[in-house]
Specification:
- The structure holds 2 protein chains of 2 kinds.
- Chain A is of the alpha+beta class.
- Chain A has a 5-stranded antiparallel beta sheet.
- The radius of gyration of chain A is 16 Å and the shape is elongated.
- Chain A has one domain: Thiol Ester Dehydrase, Chain A (Roll).
- In chain A, a hairpin with a 2-residue loop joins strand 4 and strand 5.
- Chain A contains 3 helices and 5 strands.
- By secondary structure, chain B is mainly beta.
- Helices cover 13% and strands 38% of the residues of chain B.
- In chain B, the strands form 3 sheets. In chain B, strands 1, 2, 3, 4, 5 and 6 form a 6-stranded antiparallel beta sheet that branches. Chain B has a 5-stranded mixed barrel with strand order 10-11-12-14-13. In chain B, strands 8-7-9 form a 3-stranded antiparallel beta sheet, with helices on one face.
- In chain B, a hairpin with a 2-residue loop joins strand 5 and strand 6.
- Chain B starts with a helix and ends in a 6-residue tail after the last strand.
- Classes of the chains: A alpha+beta, B mainly beta.
- At the A-B interface, helix 1, helix 3 and strand 2 of A face helix 2 and strand 2 of B.
Chain lengths: 131, 304
């Protein structure tokens, strides 16, 4: 892995089940993440994915790419276009910097209406030790 | 409240605690880790087995109030949100999450946390609406040792324009009435179900058509249906839903006593009790001020 390397993209179908399961698994009971009627009253066309789920998916994307020995040191994300049910988000990433056993990865996630997430993930991959 | 006044009042909250002495509602635990991994589709083996760690991105999860809320939220944060609610900034959306993980969390770890209001932005106009960004910073500890930090930014905003509420009473589709079928609808208006009869060969036909499909004659008159019929076939509609129809419901192909068939609703019987051969009788049902339709009611004592 070198700076400038691209990570293989990951397609995430944004199902209603994923939106709700992610919200509940993260103990986030804000109505906009499970109740379409109340979401509409708040000006949203439908329920949408909560930030904790996006955070979890970004973390999973990077550890999937770097393998189970990889340890996340930091995840910083900013949300843009919401993930509504029926859409697909494609996560892609680029290694920005390698410092020893630590990589800084720039991650973006695009859906059908724009850029859902922009993030930076710091991950450490310990060198293979003698067993 | 004028905007400048509100902005000044909001700024006062910068630096004040949002949560003091917060305790995780549950210790870090395998079931919540598993539920999280299932939702995320995360099959990383580091999160299962005897040496499992919690996915680091779950950091905030261990601090969530859930349905029962936070008992440990400091008054300043609630006051700040109430101030924004009161000024019309009633909706909330999370925009940023910045986490650093200093130590792994494992099942059994008891999490405590403190949170401070780092900043309240000036009034901003976004695509969602106008509002204020509120940034908090949370330190998450296990046994006094800092395990991670979590900076979180929300936008408290006044929705730009609520989506129009769905039509409270969606109406059934209107029939398309033309010169070929106008006579049928005139009959319905008089509560008569009229069947076309070819005056060339005497064949009955339904629905209404300009010519006879037995002999081709364009000449016709009508006979009034007696109203007796049987369910020749039916389907139960579950999906997709259409406005004004409340699934599940039965759509019947009714064979009239006169021998022609028509598609209609079967009423007076649960959708799952409609059966082929069930005797039915014509009824006229008014659906709104301008729409009345011939439908078929299951006969009393019909075998269910």
């Amino acid at each position: 892995m070198r700076a400038g390397d691209a990570l293989p993209p990951l397609r995430i179908p944004v199902t209603r089940t994923l939106v709700v399961a992610g919200a509940i698994a993260s103990r986030d009971y804000q109505d906009v993440h499970h109740d379409p009627e109340l979401a509409r009253r708040r000006g949203s066309p439908d329920v949408f994915m909560n930030i904790l789920t996006t955070n979890g998916l970004v973390g999973r994307y990077v550890t999937d790419c770097f393998g189970p020995r990889a340890v996340l040191r930091g995840v910083a994300i900013r949300l843009g276009a919401p993930n509504y049910p029926g859409d697909t988000m494609v996560l892609s990433g680029t290694v920005e910097e390698i410092d020893g056993d630590t990589a800084t990865v720039k991650v973006v996630g695009d859906n059908g209406i724009g850029r859902h997430v922009t993030g930076t993930v710091t991950v450490t991959v310990p060198a293979e030790g003698v067993v | 409240m004028v905007v400048e006044d509100l902005s000044v009042r909001l700024k006062v909250y910068e630096g004040r605690p949002a949560v003091r002495g917060g305790l995780g509602k549950d210790p870090v635990n395998s079931p919540m880790i598993r539920h999280w991994c299932e939702a995320m589709g995360d099959t990383n083996p580091a999160y299962t087995g005897p040496d499992a760690i919690a996915p680091p991105t779950m950091l905030q999860v261990w601090t969530m109030g859930g349905l029962s809320g936070h008992e440990t939220r400091a008054p300043a944060y609630d006051e700040l949100l109430a101030l924004l609610d009161g000024a019309g900034y009633t909706s909330v959306v999370a925009t940023d999450c910045e986490q650093e993980y200093l130590r792994v969390l494992r099942p059994g770890d008891e999490v405590s946390f403190d949170s401070v209001i780092e900043s309240v932005s000036d009034r901003k106009t976004t695509r969602l609406g106008t509002g204020y960004f509120v940034t908090t910073r949370t330190d998450v500890r296990v046994g006094g040792e800092l395990a991670g930090t979590h900076r979180f930014r929300i936008l408290k905003y006044a929705p730009r324009a609520a989506a129009p509420p769905p039509d409270p009473a969606p109406r059934r589709p209107r029939p398309v009435v033309n010169r070929d079928n106008a006579g049928f609808w005139e009959g319905v208006a008089r509560h008569r179900l009229l069947i076309q009869r070819c005056t060339g060969c005497g064949t009955l036909r339904f629905p209404w058509l300009p010519g006879c499909n037995a002999c081709g004659s364009p000449e016709w008159d009508t006979v009034e249906a007696s109203g007796a019929g049987t369910v020749h076939s039916y389907v139960v509609m579950h999906h997709p839903p259409f406005p004004a129809f409340d699934p599940p419901y039965a759509v019947g192909l009714i064979e009239l006593a006169e021998g022609v068939r028509m598609i209609s609703n079967v009423i007076g019987v649960p959708y799952d009790k409609v059966r082929i051969g069930m005797p039915v009788r014509l009824a006229f049902v008014r659906y709104d001020e301008e729409l009345e339709l011939p439908v078929f009611r299951a006969e009393e004592g019909a075998p269910a």
